[in-house]
Request: fold
Amino acid sequence: MAGVLVLRPEEAARRTAQRLRERGHAVVVAPLLTIRATGEPCPPGPFDGVVVTSPNAFEALRETDIAALRALPLLAVGERTGEVARQAGFAAVTAAGGDRLALAALAPSVFTSGARLLLVLGRDHKVDTPALLAAPGFPVVPWIAYVAEAEETLPPAAVVALGNGTVTIALHYSRRSAALALALADGAGCGDAFRALRHQCLSGDVAAPLQAAGARDVVAAAVPHEEALLALLPARGDR
Reply:
């Protein structure tokens, strides 16, 4: 089976690695981003609903008292974020189709007209996300609750795997981490080997920096869900 390089923050990477190993793949985990709470206090309420754009938010929110928010309807960007929201104690959770456009399109069917929404974001969020949610007439209050801090070097295990050819596929979950992986691979002297991998991406947006940098074998999942991403992997017995 193919050797797979997983480019995700550590906790999420461990979950993905377990799924891959169960399918018979060798895995190298390369966490390029570390999720940390910003410590920025939650904006003052009251709110009529909560919108969350990433499961990473809940890793940061563990350090924050969110008890008052759990009774509110919550709109999650995708199924994984919705699952983590339920685990965090939110009862009324709706999951969108996996990106900010789907999130904004679904919001009018989840929240009442004019609802004041708390939008929980990472520091490096897509700049148009608040405006997309506000367009239907919702007052949106952004909260930068977490930051994804970039590593300065490619993990040694990834450098070794690229050098000896034991990985042939890379999984990419965000545009930022894909661009960072390219830069760090170049810095480690294994940029050509990295570009030669098959790059499987959660969406076309994630794939864009890889294509722009000259990677030739780049594919995007049909929908921005991990299941669709993993479905692109070769079948058992294929290389």
